[in-house]
Amino acid sequence: MKWRIKPRINTQFLQRARMSKHRENISISQLPHEFNEPVEFAIIGGTGLYDLPHLTPVARLTISTPWGHPSSPITISRNEEGFPIAFLARHGHHHDLLPSDVPSRANIAALKKIGVRAIVAFSAVGSLQQEIKPRDFVLPTQIIDRTKGIRPSTFFEKGFVAHAMFGEPFDLKLNKLIADNIPTSGFLDSHENKEGKPIFHTKQHTHKGEDLTVVCMEGPQFSTRAESKLYRSWGGSVINMSVLPEAKLAREAEIAYQMICMSTDYDSWNESEEPVTVETVVGNLKANSANAAKLTLELVKLISKEFSTNSLGIGEDLKGSMKYSVSTNPNAVSKELLQKMHYLFPGYWPVH
Ligand SMILES: CSC[C@H]1O[C@H](OP(=O)(O)O)[C@H](O)[C@@H]1O
Ligand SMILES: Nc1ncnc2[nH]cnc12
Description:
The protein has helices at residues 12-28, 104-113, 172-181, 225-233, 243-252, 278-287, 289-309, 335-344, and strands spanning 41-45, 56-61, 74-78, 84-89, 118-127, 137-138, 142-146, 200-201, 213-217, 238-240, 256-265. It is α/β, with parallel strands linked by helices. It has one domain: Rossmann fold, CATH 3.40.50.
């Protein structure tokens, strides 16, 4: 095993990014704080993705929900056709929220409130499989929960009980739309590394159509080698600290949700590599930022086209699903709780 201390990454990159963010903040803070159209599509940015640099911002919304404030104000941008897209930085614009402290309920509730019916969430992940190289992209289809139960993971609570379906944790239609339309090879640029061009891994393109599974751990420390090997033995493909409870809450809010993972390291299982560090993660994210931007633009084009025709009916099957997932008789639910739920589900359970 190599225990070499790596040279530090060029921190000028981070300083430059912060300075351009400062410049950008000056104009962004002048954006209107209202937007009077429904915004049906949102992108949640993870580590290294703190804005949508190739789209034109038109509004910046500060939203308060019954579950508190989101991680960041929500920026609304338009693409060339005028299609509005919401963007939220999961860890805040300055990345000052630990994975365990991300206010996921407020994030999802705020997006629901502005009309969002589909979310694509980006995440930097460690690879648990040799064939998923750092800088590859992965469209996961399954999740293993290794969080520690300290993150609020439901909108429901004592006094109002509900159980959402979660066997398919990602939205199958959204997954298919992306998998069928984003080229799995040849579309992304290589980075002069010996491993060749990055690949976009999807279930449809694995040998036997196997699931691609994201393990979600609590963090903030990375996994030990023994844990990393355990997750491989469970069939994990990649690992992060973010997909939960985000995916669960999106399901409860009846929003179609899919994550796109950007592989940044081999976690700690691979004894021919050094165990993961933040420097490795940030270094690979930086090298891959042009590909991430390319992917984001393609995605917005794809979704805006789909939403203009509604040919797949993304999110249609989720509509009304929570109404029939409650166990408690709504007549026995307190007025206070019903009012809270009204924020997410207007008209489902009238306040008596
Ligand atoms: C900075 S490495 C660990 C950090 O990166 C990932 O964040 P995100 O999913 O928001 O891109 C991972 O989940 C951890 O939170
Ligand atoms: N190895 C890893 N474990 C957990 N989260 C990560 N994010 C990026 N790399 C990761």
